[in-house]
Amino acid sequence: MWPMMDAESFKEAVHPLLKAYGFKKSNATWRKSQVESIAVFNVQKSPWGDGSFYVNLGTYFHALGDQLSPTENKCHVQVRLEIKDPSKAVQAAIEWFQARAELQSAKSFAESDAKKGLVFKELRQSLVA
Questions:
Q1: Taking the CA atoms of the chain, what radius of gyration do you get in angstroms?
Q2: Complete DSSP assignment for 32-65
Q3: pLDDT (tens digit per residue) in 13-38
Q4: Which positions ≥6 away from 47 have C-beta within 8 Å?
Q5: Which residues contact 30 (CB under 8 A, 6 or more apart)?
Q6: 86-99 and 7-20 helices, crossing angle to 10°
Q7: Under a CB-based contact definition with an 8 Å cutoff, are residues 70 and 38 in contact?
Q8: Cα dist. 33→5, 24, 51 in Å?
Q9: Residue whose C-alpha is closest to residue 119's, from 60, 55, 38, 51
Q10: Structure pTM?
């Protein structure tokens, strides 16, 4: 079990774990290119300056946009993790990304994801296409 940590300590702890899965870091965001999408893992510092942070995940689909390095708020599917243990957060993120790596898979999760996070209108519209 990890002790309570601030955003900087958390970022340092998750970096080697995400790197082992092929993610590349840019500031507080890690990205991994996949066949149909880009997986985005972001650590967002709290605006209150108390050291707290949020872990944001997103999947950006090439078929629905042309960004090469999207931020998590531009991803077509987004969720915020409540897990603050670095290894558990990375494992949960990897499972989440794997389940949503392909557009067809993301479509199957769209309804349940919309209840827990954010599903962009482009993905919702592609459900009827």
A1: 14
A2: EE-SSEEEEEEEEE-TTSSS-EEEEEEEEEGGG-
A3: 999 999 999 999 999 999 999 999 99
A4: none
A5: 14, 15, 18, 23, 24, 40, 41, 42
A6: 50
A7: yes
A8: 29, 9, 30
A9: 60
A10: 0.87
Residues 52-61 have pLDDT tens digits of 899 999 999 9
Q: What is the mean pLDDT of the chain?
A: 86
E strands, the chain, in order:
24-26, 29-33, 37-45, 53-61, 77-81, 118-119
CA–CA separation, 87 and 1 (whole Å): 10
What is the arrangement of strands in the sheet containing 29-33, beginning at the earlier edge strand? 24-26, 29-33, 37-45, 53-61, 77-81, 118-119
Question: Quick count: other Cβ atoms within 10 Å of Cβ 107?
Answer: 18
- Distance CA(43)–CA(33), nearest Å, equals 18
The residue whose two tokens read 């790596």 is: 101
